[in-house]
From TrEMBL:
<protein>
    <submittedName>
        <fullName>Oligopeptidase B. Serine peptidase. MEROPS family S09A</fullName>
    </submittedName>
</protein>
<comment type="similarity">
    <text>Belongs to the peptidase S9A family.</text>
</comment>
<feature type="domain" description="Peptidase S9A N-terminal">
    <location>
        <begin position="8"/>
        <end position="415"/>
    </location>
</feature>
<dbReference type="InterPro" id="IPR051543">
    <property type="entry name" value="Serine_Peptidase_S9A"/>
</dbReference>
<dbReference type="InterPro" id="IPR002470">
    <property type="entry name" value="Peptidase_S9A"/>
</dbReference>
<dbReference type="Pfam" id="PF00326">
    <property type="entry name" value="Peptidase_S9"/>
</dbReference>
<dbReference type="GO" id="GO:0006508">
    <property type="term" value="P:proteolysis"/>
</dbReference>
<keyword id="KW-0645">Protease</keyword>
<keyword id="KW-0378">Hydrolase</keyword>
<dbReference type="InterPro" id="IPR029058">
    <property type="entry name" value="AB_hydrolase_fold"/>
</dbReference>
<dbReference type="Pfam" id="PF02897">
    <property type="entry name" value="Peptidase_S9_N"/>
</dbReference>
<dbReference type="GO" id="GO:0004252">
    <property type="term" value="F:serine-type endopeptidase activity"/>
</dbReference>
<keyword id="KW-0720">Serine protease</keyword>
<dbReference type="InterPro" id="IPR023302">
    <property type="entry name" value="Pept_S9A_N"/>
</dbReference>
<feature type="domain" description="Peptidase S9 prolyl oligopeptidase catalytic">
    <location>
        <begin position="480"/>
        <end position="695"/>
    </location>
</feature>
<dbReference type="InterPro" id="IPR001375">
    <property type="entry name" value="Peptidase_S9_cat"/>
</dbReference>
Amino acid sequence: MTTTPQPTAKRVPAERTHHGDTVVDEYAWLATKDDPETIAYLEAENAHTEARTAHLAGLRAELFEETRRRTQETDLSVPTRKGGHWYYTRTVEGQQYGVHCRRAVRPDETTPPVSADGAPLDGEEVLLDGNQLAEGHDFFSLGAFDVSPDGRWLAYSTDFSGDERFTLRIKDLATGELRPDEVPDTFYGTAWSSDASTLFYVTVDDAWRPNRVWRHTVGTPSSEDVVVHQEDDERFWVGVELTRSERFVVVDIHSKITSEVRVIPAANPTGEPAIVAPRRQGVEYAVEHHGHRFLILHNDGAEDFALAYTSADAPGDWTPLIPHTPGTRLEAVDAFENHLVVSLRGNGLTGLRVLPVGSDDSWDIDFPEPIYSVGLDANPEYRTGTVRLRYTSLVTPDSVYDYDLSTRELTLLRQKPVRPGPDGRAYDPADYEQHRDWALADDGTRVPISLVCRRDTPRDGSAPAVIYGYGSYEASMDPWFSIARLSLLDRGVIFAVAHIRGGGELGRRWYDEGKLLAKKNTFTDFVACARHLVKAGWTASDRLVARGASAGGLLMGAVANLAPDAFAGIVAQVPFVDALTSILDPSLPLTVTEWEEWGNPLDDPEVYAYMKSYTPYENVTAADYPAILAVTSLNDTRVLYHEPAKWIARLRALAPQGDYLLKTEMGAGHGGPSGRYDAWREEAFVNAWTLDRLGRA
């Protein structure tokens, strides 16, 4: 048994005063990342966690092996056509990362080529092998992977620490050689000019906010690159992309509630960006090019968004195309030469609507299951009669379809294989069942819950369960299939997703009612869902583990304070548990851009008091907390590692009778370990701890 790590007593607590309120933070020293004592403390925590979970080593190995056994390790994605090539990614058994490839389209070849058991396609060209790039590094991630319109150049960027700062390079696909062009410290997002002479990219400011779009001329040093747009309003961030038509480079400028789009003709990359519509506070819009017009998806007088268009040559007034329909949230529009496809959601489910060009007709694509997720996949071709889409549910593995826009026929190209489990039985979705249930929130609001379990799972409260939640940024936790989750279901565990306010499952109002000064609805909704699972006989509170990550980790910390009796355990991954301290510091990454999500506690005393009343770190008491596992990453730039480190330290100090563990990935970022096998081991660690709390270890 190891000794629980203790923050050193010689440290001087930090003190802050805002709006007449003085707060003492006795663990603020843990924010000093380059202090050897901080690293030693985190490593001691890791050793303590490893010792406290040593009895689960065999179960972790078993769970990892079940995931590996069920996964087709050597595999090949469905190739996507762009120009004269099919593009795809392969994985190879024993290798952590994907191999990015293409193969020339053969005469009269109209359907994607396939290979047996994920073997390389005959005549393939390897564009980038992630395993070779990752050699000698504990972490590896691709930021950009962008082939030029003529197929000659590949722009790609790499991150070897997890801090999401990438080095951008250009590869000559004709010779396989790297060009001398190299740009350090770039962010996500690139766009090529029509003739591939110019590459646009994004960089960040000192607060790691993407604030500049640059123009790089291929073959010149990056020191000669030109700033195309610099965004000085700290609420906004920028992005860049090339339209599907390859006619325009789009510079997207966005805050949480306001947007502005500027366009550059791709054939004239040195041209001045033209504003499609000037920013207006509270008005969001996105632009898609389609022939002579720009399609505008917007919320101007349309809470759940409407679709309009304006001239591409001289953007001006917006002409309505799809009017606003309350309760039907329009999320995106994809333009093809003869059809538009609108991604939407209604009644808590995603959907796709097809609009033929030049016709008043439109229709929604139908799907058979009561709970599912559907969306467009990569569709790089503008002139096409089919679109690629992805479909999944809690029991249906990820499925790739081609949809014929004329005949309305869906063709299944591939469903992700699920190999036999440890008992040798093939996966059969009929062995499992999914449900949509509804909880009643404190204010009478009905909150949807998605559930999946084995068909033989009892409904008398004896079954253990995991409830997952997020509830921020209008992000929807739509049903998804998970091979690793099967190991829980087959051990009798019910898996539930609480679609709480703050997410986007039920439209923009659902989001608005879970942010700013209504944020507590997110937390009380989750507790209501947990209580409902018990009341409805799905599980019992001493058999229920809650799980969430990032802003969902804030949720975990908040409900631990709000209703510690509702859970047998809580898993908080990269948790945003010291939200008030972070949102008070505008020098931190993301803080200023987040004020429109949480409020500005620096200037507004009401926001300050409200955030202080729910932020987990500030509200730890001597309560009887459930067991808590906090997982974080040292190089995370979105939720800094010291938030969960401080939280666990304060929990131990104020409620020492509890069982609290902190696990820090010392060489990863917000998404955790980068390699697939490492990610499986991380999931096995969490699931083993969860099963232990549920009495199923």
